[in-house]
Write a structure and sequence with these properties.
This protein has 426 residues and is of the alpha+beta class. It is built from 14 helices and 21 strands. Strands 1, 2, 6, 7, 8, 9 and 21 form a 7-stranded mixed beta sheet that branches. It is elongated and about 85 Å long.
């Protein structure tokens, strides 16, 4: 049996950061990674560019996680966004800030982020045990016994950083939940987050390839079974349903439904609903304009371009195919001209632009999810150290925890920060 001070399970952002910190403090550390190389998810994230954090401060990161953000305060104090940027810059992987605040490596290569983390780990003396999955974890005689296909390991302390269930092709199939549960932890049922949303409506999938750069999307829980009936000019307060979650960003129509940052951000609400088909995505396709401002612009156009089709009035601001869908969903004839565009018709279509409802079927699941919602409940972990309140000398970090934030680098920052704090604590 081989003896270590610390065994880290999982070679993702939390595991690599935690292992490096522990080894840098003089601990004898082994990192067990089931894949042949560490950080597979890092390499795939952000379109292989790795959006590693967001251009905000520690408070901004914590607030993005809502009430759960309080748990992250100590971790972010140990490693905030700027400190992390400085860390990667010092390691030869400088960063850049893109519109919207996303922080990427200046090279646009996720491999540079991973290389920096691996260099630091090796330099600190971490033993990287690759292609060596953990089969069993048990506590006996005051230490932990870890069984792999190659050997049995004894460790004084264990850091679980196995990730969640998103991107299962990376090996993140949720086995960390099994280990945590066996040691007494409560697992909030995992569900996909930051994943595309599906729709069975043919008119939605017919818009495949159409995108809107700026939209506000709300998840609406409908009041009745006829939720796909997009009736013209719905009366305010009638059939509205209950609003559940809202996000703003780009929207993309696909062959299966919708995607894009705004959609991904609200997907956790869909995946967590018992009956997703009872939901709608209500899209404000021109959030920078009020309904009255849209009407005013059309009134002027109707007076000067009377022979122009109504869809042509809309496509000056939105893609033509989407404009035609808006006309159809407003219950107006496709060949309606601006001269025939009555005040009532204008009000009807302006309202549809501000309340463009997309029927929901479900999500694309963990296979396309960027992060997992749910996991080890935070009440059982000490946020000041990442140590378990249930099992002695057990630490937990990263996506394994019941933490999920919006798109934009927030989740990577949480993984790096919780891993760093755990490494400082073991």
């Amino acid at each position: 049996m081989e003896n270590y001070d610390v065994a880290v399970i999982g070679g993702g952002p939390a595991g690599l950061m935690g292992a490096e910190r522990a080894a840098a403090r003089g601990r004898r550390v082994v990192l067990l990674e089931k894949n042949r190389r560490p950080g597979i998810k890092i390499l795939l994230s952000g379109g292989t560019r790795c959006n590693l954090t967001h251009a905000t401060d520690a408070r901004g990161i914590a607030e993005a996680f809502g009430p759960a953000g309080r748990f992250l305060r100590s971790a972010l104090a140990a490693l905030g966004p700027q400190e992390m940027i400085d860390l990667f810059t010092a390691e030869g992987a400088p960063t850049k800030i893109e519109p919207g605040g996303k922080v990427f490596p200046a090279s646009d290569r996720a491999s540079d982020v991973l290389a920096a983390l691996v260099r630091r780990a090796k330099r600190s003396g971490v033993e990287l045990a690759l292609a060596e999955p953990l089969l069993d974890l048990a506590r006996e005689d005051g230490r932990y016994r870890l069984t792999t296909p190659r050997r049995t390991i004894s460790a004084e302390k264990v850091l679980l950083a196995t990730g969640g269930k998103s991107y299962p092709a990376c090996g993140t199939i949720g086995d960390g939940y099994r280990f945590a549960a066996a040691l007494g932890h409560t697992i909030v049922p995992p569900r996909p987050a930051l994943t595309p949303i599906t729709s069975h409506a043919e008119w939605v999938t017919a818009l495949q390839g159409v995108s809107v750069t700026d939209a506000v999307i709300e998840v609406i829980e409908t009041n009745g079974p006829d939720r796909t009936a997009l009736t013209p000019s719905p009366s305010p307060g009638t059939g509205e349903g209950r609003k559940r979650l809202k996000s703003r960003g780009a929207l993309l129509f696909t062959h299966f439904g919708v995607s894009g940052p705004a959609v991904l951000d609200v997907s956790r609400e869909v995946s967590g609903h018992e009956q997703p088909s009872d939901l709608l995505l209500r899209c404000d396709l021109l959030p920078e304009l009020t309904e009255e401002e849209i009407l005013d612009s059309w009134a002027d156009a109707s007076a000067t371009t009377g022979r122009r089709q109504v869809a042509g009035l809309v496509d000056s601001r939105l893609p033509r195919r989407l404009a035609e869908a808006i006309v159809a969903q407003s219950g107006l004839p496709g060949d309606l001209t601006a001269a025939e565009f009555s005040k009532r018709d204008r009000r009807q279509m302006a309202r549809r632009i501000k309340r463009f409802d997309v029927p929901v079927a479900g999500t694309m699941g963990f296979r396309k999810a960027e992060v997992t919602a749910g996991g080890v409940t935070l009440e059982e972990v000490d946020g000041r150290t990442m140590q378990s309140r249930v099992a002695p000398n057990l630490y937990l970090a990263g996506e394994l925890l019941d933490l999920d934030g919006p798109i934009g680098g927030y989740n990577f920052q949480a993984a790096f920060s919780t891993g760093r704090l755990a490494g400082e604590s073991v």
